[in-house]
Each structure stands twice: as C-alpha cells, then as structure tokens.
Design a protein that fits this description.
Radius of gyration: 30 Å
CATH class of the largest domain: Alpha Beta
Strand content: 15-25%
CATH superfamily of the largest domain: P-loop containing nucleotide triphosphate hydrolases
Oligomer: single chain
Helix content: 25-40%
CATH architecture of the largest domain: 3-Layer(aba) Sandwich
Largest sheet: 7 strands, parallel
Length: 663
C-alpha cells in the first residue's frame, strides 16, 4: 500500500493491487481518488449472517443463498444464435438451478467446485430456479470474513469489476485511512451524530442494519452543510459589500396602475407586495424568490414591484426564458404602463428587435422610467442600462445560477425578484434557493372558471375530438400539445409537424395554427397574435407554450402521449387554460402501461394544487428532472435525499447560519 500521508487525494491507480486496468474500470464510475472511493455508497446491503438454506427458498421472493457449484454448462440451438448457460448450486439441504439466457460468456465465469453467493427472485420450485441472478464467487483465505457472516455492501459496478474485489479494496483503504479523515467543518457541531470517519466506515461495513441510516444521515449533513455554506456565504458577502438602492417608491404610479387594471389584488398579492416594499426600502439589496401557482397573479405583483423602482427614479429589466413569454410580458406591460408615461422596450434574440433596440439604446439606457423586457439577450454585453434599480427573472428554473449572477451584475447591486410558477417543495427551495428570501402567493384570483381534468386512453380519441369540436362551435379555443417537433422512427410519439395536416382536416372549418421552438421569432409572434385575436381557433404546439401564455378564451387543453411528461410540466401546461370566466377542460391522452404511470396521471385528475403535484413529481422523478438542477449549480448528492431529508436540510441551514453569525 501507499504511504498514509495525503492518502485521501491519492489517485487509485497508485494503490497496491489496483493497476491500470482496475483504475480504468473505477474511472468509468467517476472514481479517481481514494476519497472518491470512500464516498462511493453501496446501492444495497445483503444480510449474510443468517443465510437461507436452499431448501427454504420461497416462490416469487428475492432470496440470498450460498452453495457449491456441482454442475454447469452451456447449451446452444438455432445454429448457435440462442443459448442458455445453467449452473446447479448445492448447500447440503437442496439444489438450486441458475440460468442465463443468451449470455454464452457466462461459461467462462464459473466452474464446478466454485463456492457462490446467489441473489435473485425464485421463479420455480420444481426444480428450484432463478433466472439471471446476481452472483459473487467466494474465495477462501484470510479475507473471507470481509464477505461472509456480516452485513455485506453491494456496490454499483461496471463491466469486469467484481464485488468481492471492490469490497476488499475498501476494507484495506479504511484500515489505511484510520485517523486521516477529519471533520470538513470542525467549528460546526454535529451533536448526536457519529464523526465523519465513523460514518464512512459504517456506510460500508455496518455492524447492524440501523447503522446504515445513521451513517447516511451524517454524510448527507456534510453535503447539505457544504451547499448552505456556499449560498449563505455568497449572500453574506453581497450584504457586506452592497449598499441598497432606495427603491421603496412613492405609490404615485401604483395607485394609478391599480385603478386602471380592472381587477383587485388578492390578499396574498398584497401581503407579498408589503414584503417586497420592505426589502426595496432596506439597506440591503432585495434577493427574493416569488412562488405562485399557475394563474396566481405573479405578473401583477412584478408590475407593482417594477413601479416602486420606477417611482424612485430607476430603470427595471425583466428577463423571460422564451421569446413567446417575453413578447407577452411586453404586450401586458405596454398596455399597463403606457398610460403612466413609462417606456416599455423589448429585447429578444430576433435580429429585427436587436437592430431596432441598438439604434435607440444610447438614449434609452441613460434615461429613467423605462422597463426593458427580453430574453437571454438582456445578459449580453450590449445591454448596459444606467440606473438599473430592479432585475426580475421569470421562470427562474429555466436559467442557471451563473446567468442570474451575470444579469444582476448589469447594475450597481440592483434589487432582484425571481419568479416561478413551478411550486417548489421546501427541501428544494432551501437547497436551490437558500440565498433568497421566499414569498408565496397562496391564493388564486376570483372570477376564474373551474378546470376539469380527464385521463383517457388513445381508443377514446374519437369521442374527445367530438367534444372539442362542440366547444369550438360554442366560440371557445383549444390547445393541442404533442411531445415532439419531428416524427420519430417508431411512430409511437406524436409530433406537431407530422400531425398538422391531419388536424386541419379533422377540425375544419376551424383554423389550426402551428407553434414550436424551431420557428423564427416573427413566425411565433404571428401565430400567437392570430390565436389571441381568435382568427386561429386551435393552437397545435409543443411545450413551448408551457409558461406564461395567457389567452382567457382558450378553455381546452388536449395533451397526447401525456405519460412522457412530468407531473409539474403537465400542471404548467394545464395552467394555460382556466384563465377566463368559462369552465375549462384538460384532457390527457396516455398509453400508460404500468400501474405506477396510471397512478401518476390520476393525481392530476384529483387536484389542481401545484405544491402537492410538485411533491409527487419530486418523489417520482427526482429534483434533476423537476427543476433542471443541472442548471442550478447544485452538486450531485451521494447521500442526501431531497425527497425525505427536509429535517436535515433545515438543520444544516440553521447550523451554518449560527456559524456565519456567531453571537
């Protein structure tokens, strides 16, 4: 073995018994150093202290048995294109047949006399049979105690890497690193938890089953503390350096705005605006996340927040993830703000708007009382507004942390309001947005029609189209959403381009528009404008309409291949309807073949509560797919679980807060 000094950072290839071939296999698992391997958690554990006898195995039950191979061989047929390798295991109480179909290489892995552990589901009792089991050859000698008569770790592997080899390597490394693995944050007390070194040993070689969860929680705490330190330190650094711009406003413009919009703010909107005004009047720049379910009225809150900054003599910038949403915000703000004498400017990626903007930006960027609405174009170096008091980011999870930072740096520590219509479970809110204060609009405006949701199979489509035609004849409009732009080879997933002509014939004489992300900016806007004006009655689209699109007369949402979408995304799409006074209908066409898929979609039939849906989505799909956490800058979690570790996340946040702000 290598010298114990600096062992944690030592490349694995330098360890005795590893070598280039094994190091290459470990690298495929993203394991490069000793510390990487020590933090490589087992995927499951096997209780090997009381192994079941072969005679005791039960039908349909996952079983672990140990025995000696008394016979094995490969049988081929169909001119060698089909095969089965079979071995017979005996332990003195009975025999077990293990079979691998069409895996002839298994013949080279086993031989008569091998002592083997076998894990798998019993398919037959006459004879006792398991197909394609997990196996581990147990070799005698001084290291057999690592593999037998204990709770044994079973690791994620790659081709050619045996369980017994990686388990034995970890045992030797743990012996070598004893005393080397200190606490990553010695000043933060982990009361009631094992040390990091003990937790690492327990996660690999637990003495009792409950040790596994104790160790996991301790190592998860290390991960959560690391994330909280990064976020809270960033916030603390900003607060120590920054002097907030006075953007509390005078209420002059807001009073005129509220008098002219034709609706009254809800109690929840008013409460959130009080929080925002307090932030924008304080000595520290606002960093606030505004959550609200689809249709909760976030845009009106954003407008009032913008007016506070404008009343105070500062400019405002609002960034959206898509040109469609930016254009819609532009239309809304221009309608609301033009009567107040406020300039509203659009900057998106289309050449026309950039050209128009650049011809007049020298004058515009130096004036106050302007709000700039745009897409990623607002991050570009050419956008350099003066007196930028407030930055608003809509649908934050569509942007990365780095993009948020670049946007905020456009001014001299402007206030930041981040908005999302994707309800965020509390664990995700604390880990992804721990550097932001959080406000929630938990009340929907009145006067909205009810949304009814139905899950249907493809054989019910004829009746569904009859219903949609009846609604269109009554003057309503409809969205039809397919997962793809282009058709796929298997033809099972519908695509908007392939179905466009079919839909035009099916719904004639109603006009059908086509919208997807590959259209040019002006083409998208022409289609959306026609849909807004009801010269197009049906909008056939991809998920490009997922956020922000607001057409009160659109009361039908048909989504085909619904099983391919996440629950949160389906909820977002459903939020495009129910925005007027008429009753609305969301119809999900799915070929959900499993009970789990059917249960998942049924959730949407039973609730319109976005937070409950987001929690379910988090359980089913994980944080990466729910919120695009790859963009968030959040490192992958080996031990933490954002579905179930809320208590640990909250504890980590509190511990870090105490360490950064000692009394």
């Amino acid at each position: 073995m290598a010298d114990a000094q600096n062992i944690l950072g030592l490349p694995l290839r330098e360890l005795r018994g590893v070598g280039i071939e094994r190091a290459t296999q470990l690298a495929r698992l993203e394991l490069h150093t000793v510390e990487d391997l020590l933090l490589h958690p087992p995927r499951r554990y096997e209780e090997r202290r009381n192994l079941k006898k072969i005679s005791e195995v039960q039908m349909g039950v996952n079983t672990l048995v140990y025995g000696k191979i008394v016979a094995c061989g490969l049988k081929k047929w169909r001119y060698g294109t089909k095969s089965v390798f079979e071995m017979i295991l005996e332990d003195g109480s009975g025999r077990l047949h293990c079979r691998w179909w069409n895996q002839p290489f298994r013949e080279n892995q086993f031989e008569t006399g091998n002592e083997v552990l076998v894990f798998g589901k019993v398919l037959s009792l006459k004879p006792r049979t398991i197909d394609h089991p997990e196996t581990e050859i147990i070799e005698g000698g001084e290291e057999s105690f690592i593999h037998l008569n204990r709770i044994a770790p079973i690791y994620p592997l790659t081709e050619g890497l045996p369980q017994r080899w990686i388990r034995a390597l970890l045992w030797r490394i743990l012996e070598l690193t004893e005393g080397q693995m200190g606490e990553p944050h010695p000043t933060i007390p982990f009361t009631g938890m094992p040390t990091r070194a003990n937790a690492v040993r327990m996660i690999h070689f637990p003495e009792e089953l409950h040790d596994i969860e104790v160790a996991r929680q301790r190592l998860a705490m290390d991960e959560f503390v690391e994330m909280q330190l990064a976020m809270q330190a960033r916030r603390k650094k900003m607060e120590s350096k920054a002097r907030a711009l006075p953007c509390g406003g005078t209420n002059v413009l807001i009073k005129k705005f509220l008098a002219g919009i034709g609706f009254t703010l809800t109690g929840a909107q008013t409460k959130v605006l009080r929080e925002i005004r307090k932030d924008m009047s304080s000595a520290v720049p606002m960093r606030r996340l505004l959550q609200g379910d689809v249709g909760a009225g976030k845009t009106a809150v954003a407008a009032c927040s913008a007016l506070m900054a404008l009343e105070s003599g500062f400019n405002v910038a609002l960034m959206s993830p898509t040109e469609i949403l930016a254009e819609q915000h532009f239309q809304n703000f221009r309608k609301w703000f033009a009567p107040l004498g406020i300039s509203v400017e659009l900057l998106t990626g289309s050449v026309k708007s950039i050209t128009d903007f650049r011809t007049k930006q020298k004058d515009l960027l130096k004036t106050a009382n302007s709000i700039f609405v745009g897409t990623h174009a607002l991050i570009e170096s050419s956008f350099t507004p003066e007196k930028l008091g407030l930055v608003i980011i809509d649908e934050q999870h569509k942007f990365g942390v780095a993009q948020r930072e670049r946007f905020v740096k456009k001014g001299n520590y402007p206030h930041l309001l981040v908005m999302t219509a994707t309800p965020i479970p509390r664990t995700l809110g604390l880990t992804l947005y721990g550097d932001l204060d959080i406000s929630v609009i938990d009340e929907l405006p009145g006067g909205r029609g009810k949304i009814k949701t139905f899950v249907r199979t493809a054989d019910k489509l004829a009746k569904v189209w009859d219903f949609i035609r009846s609604q269109l004849k009554a003057g309503r409009q409809a969205y039809v959403v397919y997962p793809r732009v282009e058709d796929t080879e298997n033809g099972e997933t519908k695509a908007v381009k392939a179905e466009f002509t079919t839909l035009q014939k099916l719904l004639a004489p109603m006009r059908v528009g086509l919208l997807h992300g590959r259209l040019k900016g002006e083409e998208k806007e022409a289609v959306m404008s026609a849909f807004r004006q009801n010269t197009i009655q049906v909008l056939l689209a991809t998920t490009v309409i997922e956020v922000g699109v607001d057409i009160p007369n659109a009361t039908i949402m048909l989504i085909e291949n619904a099983e391919q979408f996440g629950l949160a995304q389906l909820h977002q799409l459903r939020g495009r309807i129910g925005r007027g006074a008429h009753e609305s209908y969301c119809i999900l066409i799915a070929t959900a073949k499993t009970a789990e898929s059917q249960r998942r979609l049924k959730i949407l039939e039973t609730t319109t509560d976005g937070f409950r849906i987001a929690e379910e989505d988090l359980k089913l799909r994980g944080p990466g797919e729910l919120l695009g956490t790859q963009q968030s800058g959040m490192p992958p979690l080996r031990f933490g679980d954002l579905v179930s570790d809320l208590r640990l996340v909250e504890r980590a946040r509190d511990l870090v807060k105490e360490s950064l702000n000692p009394k």
